[in-house]
Design brief:
- By secondary structure, this protein is an alpha+beta fold.
- The chain folds into 2 domains: 112 residues, Phosphorylase Kinase, domain 1 (2-Layer Sandwich); 236 residues, Transferase(Phosphotransferase) domain 1 (Transferase(Phosphotransferase), domain 1), CATH 1.10.510.10.
- It has 8 helices and 14 strands.
- The protein has a 5-stranded antiparallel β-sheet with strand order 3-4-5-8-7, with helices on one face. Strands 1-2-6 form a 3-stranded antiparallel β-sheet.
- A hairpin with a 4-residue loop joins strand 7 and strand 8.
- Helix 3 packs antiparallel against helix 4, helix 3 runs antiparallel to helix 7 and helix 4 packs antiparallel against helix 6.
- It is globular and about 60 Å long.
Length: 356
């Protein structure tokens, strides 16, 4: 049974958890493997391969996960599989790849809608060195932010947000977030393993090598996704690889221990520069939520081009933010205003130091 709620002008559909505490999968989510036909491989990752295929008379994407060799590895991978099925079946949003079903035997398989478009990574490379139209880049960023806001509203941390996991629709007008293989419930983050995700997009707190006291648990929250979004937004605006000229490990070290970030172009809008810098600021508690990011991007987009009759901009909660006639944000909660004012002063001071 599903329920519907509206949040920030966006509809989020939720289902009850379909994976029991012991990791078994609800029978309603399992599909008949005899109806599956696996075709050509279209992608590959650390934990499995993705194929174009058919489920019944429907063209689909079929993710086949690795089984492992040892009993311990098999148990861990089966748990990862059940967790991914759980989260994909629980959240539905127009900017999330649609879950169709799963199989446990003879292969661990997750079936989703097939997007005929390419990944955002391949798309950016195909047009490089040309930059995306600013309107297109901001709309792609809004798609990503809305998908992430949906996940966070449901207590899910993605942990691997990057252009490879963002898929373009057939008309290349929007993007959808895919691959929940590394996603976790926020309630169990303190038990999560660090060094999860892809180095160039990972928040520094995920791969810090500071030795913890014996028995102390590593804890981080959903703001790791906000950091990754900041890197993705930078890519959308520059169409360059983050931390160019560095290996993955060099990029990780530079971000975590030297507080380095990709250089912002001189011609980038101060408002967009502020959003990016706010997302990748060192202190996770100072990073904005995706709800706030959506509001700031919508305000910028409203100012970028005249508003059209449809679609209308998402409604804003009156106690959180409001937009003036020229699209600038005029009202935030006092706590949010204080945090953003501090960040603006911090970035201004840093820019002044860099110019001297």
């Amino acid at each position: 049974m599903s329920c519907e709620r509206r949040r920030g002008g966006m509809e989020i559909y939720e289902q009850r958890s379909s994976v029991e505490e012991n990791g078994s999968i609800d029978q309603n989510l399992l599909i008949d493997p005899k109806l599956l036909f696996i075709g050509n491989k279209i992608g590959e990752g650390a934990h499995g391969e993705v194929y174009k295929g058919r489920y019944g008379d429907r063209i689909v994407a079929i993710k086949v996960l690795h089984r492992g060799t040892t009993s311990e590895e098999k148990a861990a991978l089966e748990d990862r599989f059940a967790r991914e099925v759980n989260m994909m079946s629980r959240v539905k949003h127009e900017n999330l790849v649609k879950f169709i079903g799963a199989c446990k035997d003879p292969l661990m398989v997750i079936v989703t809608e097939l997007l005929p478009g390419m990944s955002l990574r391949k798309y950016l490379v195909s047009v490089r060195p040309k930059q995306l139209d600013l309107y297109v880049a901001i709309n792609f960023a809004l798609d990503v932010a809305r998908a992430m806001d949906c996940l966070h509203a449901n207590g899910i941390i993605h942990r691997d947000l990057k252009p490879d996991n963002l898929l373009l629709t057939a008309n290349q007008k929007s993007v959808k977030l895919a691959d929940f293989g590394l996603a976790r419930e926020e309630t169990v983050t303190e038990m999560m393993t660090a060094e999860t995700g892809t180095y160039r997009w990972m928040a520094p707190e995920l791969y810090s090598t500071v030795t913890l006291r014996q028995g102390e648990k590593k804890h981080y929250n959903n703001k790791v996704d906000v950091y990754s979004f900041g890197i993705v937004l930078w890519e959308l605006l520059t169409n360059r690889m983050p931390f160019e000229g560095m290996s993955n490990l060099q990029a990780a070290y530079a971000a975590a221990f030297k507080q380095e970030r990709p250089a912002l172009p001189d011609d980038v809008s101060p408002d967009l520069a502020f959003i990016i810098q706010s997302c990748w600021v060192e202190d996770p508690n100072l990073r904005p939520s995706f709800n706030q990011i959506i509001r700031m991007l919508n305000a910028f987009l409203f100012r970028l081009s005249p508003p059209s009759p449809s679609p209308s901009l998402p409604e804003c909660d009156t106690n959180e933010a409001a937009s003036s006639s020229n699209g600038t944000i005029t009202e935030f909660s006092s706590r949010t205003r204080g945090k953003f004012a501090f960040l603006r002063q911090l970035f201004a001071a840093k820019k002044t130091r860099n110019t001297h």
